[in-house]
Amino acid sequence: MKTYDAFPEPIGGYTVGRTQMDFEYTASDHSKRELTAFVYYPSDSSEGKTTSTYMFPEVYEMFNEQPLVTALKDVFSIDIKTQFYDDLALSGKEKRYPVLFYVCGGGGSPEWGTVICTDLASMGYVVVSIGHQNSTMYKRKDGRLFNVSKDFSDVITAFSEDPEMLALAGEMEMRPDDETAIEMCHNVLTLPILAKLTEYSELQAEDVRYVADYLYKLDSGELNSIFKGRLLLDIGMGIVGHSYGGLTTAIVCRDDDRFACGIGLDSGAFGLLDSDLKKPFLLLFCEPNYNMNAIIGANNSMETYYFSVDRAAHLDYCDIVFTSVNEEIRGERDAMEMRNLVTDYTKNFFYHYILQKAASVESLAYDGVDLIKKTSNK
Fold first, then answer.
1. By percentage, how much of the chain surpasses pLDDT 70?
2. CA distances (Å), origin 266, targets 98, 306, 308
3. How far apart are CA 223 and CA 4, in angstroms?
4. What's the CA gap between 366 and 338, in Å, rounded?
5. Is-contact 277 283, C-beta < 8 A?
6. pTM (two decimals)
7. pLDDT for 313-360, tens place per residue?
8. Phi/psi at 307 (nearest 5 deg)?
9. Domains plus CATH for the chain?
10. Contact at 8 Å (CB) between 24 and 35?
């Protein structure tokens, strides 16, 4: 298989800066949450700096220690050149910049979305990727390491081994009609095994809302940073999540009116049984995933787009498309093609629903990418 020594050049015209922030707060379940986030943003110059390290080696080692991913041990490399620079000045080309959030998959790290976050920042967005306690792995600025908790690993394992879930998975059709897909999705979402999994999604959504609150304080100047008076927040924020992170994305859209729209990358609908997201939502996925999220569009009063992507593996939607050293976890699409596909759909969707530009996801044409359905229940 082809391997890469560098991530692709960003598609936008800005140089990309990145800074790290730590957060602490008490969640609604009274647990203390200690988070970190990488913030990617547009800059005008690399200031003579060298590109930043991709992932802390200590975080990479934690991945190999996770019981959740024992089968994936040593399948990706962190020895790859990035296309961003730490702690640059914020670009002066625009007065304010719109804000997006990225949510990685369960068991992953906030660095796993480096390619898409860098691309979006190079187009003029401020992009926040959070390390979520218990469900992801990360190193905080204060040096402390947080790995995926045993409880979260056990919950994921229990779901993947649940006899009822396995039976339903065996009945999923590759391209079901809407009625069949919605019924299957309903049957999955009512499984008792999903209750604990949904609790973790709700906590991740709280994390996003807390960090969003923090950004408002940065913009107002209540907290000092390079973002004082520079964030374009009144048009609404966007959010995109991969896999388990896609559940968080949908919950945030449902519960926080500051978010204008969201994107789920090969994700599902856990915790969303009777939910009207009230926001435009886009799903890119591998078949037969329509069975896992059909209920989103059935309930959403705003536009929901379902795009099926053939010849793609689940992890192709994150950085592993470039960092993989094991072809068994990769799909058949070329890494650059997969990156361009995900970035283009994401870019056009946010252009239209956040920036109100004349851009359309339906106008994009990629071989083997089909619009299964577009719903709107206005």
1. 98
2. 25, 11, 9
3. 40
4. 10
5. no
6. 0.96
7. 999 999 999 999 888 889 999 999 999 999 999 999 999 999 999 999
8. -115, 120
9. 15-375 (3.40.50.1820)
10. yes
